[in-house]
Amino acid sequence: MTEPLWTALPDNWQIGQIKNVATVTLGKMLQSKDSGGDVCAPYMRAANVQPDGALSLDNMNEMWFGETELDQLSIRSGDVVVVEGGQGGFGRAAYIREDLAGWGFQNSINRLRPVDSEIDGRFIAFYLIALRASGFIRAYSNVVSMPHLTADKLARIPMPLPPPDEQRAIADYLDRETARIDTFIEEQQRLIEMLRERRRAVLTATFSANAGTESTKVGRLLEARPSYGVLVPSYVEESEGVPFVRAGDILNLAPERPMLAIAPAQSDDFSRTKLYGGEVLLGVVGKMGQAAVAPEWLAGANVARAVAVLRCKNPTTTNLLCAWLGSEHFLRQAELATSGDSIQPTLGMKDLARFDINLPTDANAANELAGQTRRIDTLIAESEQFIELSQERRSALISAAVTGQIDVREAA
């Protein structure tokens, strides 16, 4: 039996289920053709419901509905939409703040409509957000392969039932406090982008061809041709086995961060990309310019297909090469080399080896570059930590408020 979020509730609160406060309706299966007299209308789908209660309606799809059907599957202010299935998003919930006139919703969405005007849909949405963050939804959905939070299971989820005035007070408080936290997070994200632009500018200035740099080819700096990573045939997260660095891990390498793992041991086929520490890791699929030097604690790990491993002949060149991979000088050449692949740009290893690179010949210039990028990287890391702590604070605040652990009227 999955444990609820609370151990005790305020004396004037009751305990019920979702079905006691809202009707649960599953959306319509995708209909691509008019069956006669239908109307083509926009519809809500799983991709529109983002984490932490956000809605993204810019990417709108349409399908056919019967007129009566569209009325039954309407989306009104005060409703809550909950993602029904899918590994990445099942259980995500969002509150509808204004009528979506003419919209319906697909069967990847369950709509919760409060049973009367005394029930605050915002409280329901915040409660479901807290449940998902706690891991309750994943455990409750009994995930085996493709998880589904069916309408029936959703309706039977236990929930606290504070009096209507307290529901509104909690929702008002969380609207206000989460907006403050979200604003701070957005400011930090903008700061990170500005710092990364500054970093690129510093690198570009250093590696531009001039009297203080020496031009060569990337391949001449390496022990051997750079190697793609390997296809990971099967994996589990945070498990025993050989960890694999993905492209998304490169800029966030830390011992405590989970990576893909393959059990039980390193395969002989993977020996060319086995890490020993000190290699340059470069993302070569999709967004270019993500590079880092593999720390020593990664010794024995490997890299996934979207990552290339570059081993320098001279260890003193490693940090300079890694820095150059974040410069406009590299990015321009990468863009030209991948311009024919519009779906998923992939940088070829032969192309990379032939790229022109200009290295500083002045030791002082190299040291100054290292100092500047280190200071910028420290600021980026601090901002990322602020964001992580703010997200944890947001989740804890929502959980505490919807279970009565804090008196929001005193907090306000």
From TrEMBL:
Q: Name one GO biological process term.
A: DNA restriction-modification system
Q: Which InterPro entries match?
A: Restrct_endonuc_typeI_TRD, Restrct_endonuc_typeI_TRD_sf, Type-I_RS_S_subunit
Sequence ranges assigned to domain Type I restriction modification DNA specificity in this UniProt record:
10-183
Pfam hit, one: Methylase_S
Top-level taxon: Bacteria
Q: Name one GO molecular function term.
A: DNA binding
Q: Which stretches are transmembrane?
A: none
Matches recorded under SUPFAM superfamilies:
DNA methylase specificity domain
Q: Which UniProt keywords apply?
A: DNA-binding, Endonuclease, Hydrolase, Nuclease, Restriction system
Give the family, as the similarity comment puts it: Belongs to the type-I restriction system S methylase family.
Q: Check the record and name the PANTHER family matching this protein.
A: TYPE I RESTRICTION ENZYME MJAVIII SPECIFICITY SUBUNIT, TYPE-1 RESTRICTION ENZYME ECOKI SPECIFICITY PROTEIN
Q: What's the protein called, per UniProt? A: Restriction endonuclease subunit S
Protein's organism: Saccharopolyspora montiporae
Tell me the lineage of the source organism. Answer: Bacteria, Bacillati, Actinomycetota, Actinomycetes, Pseudonocardiales
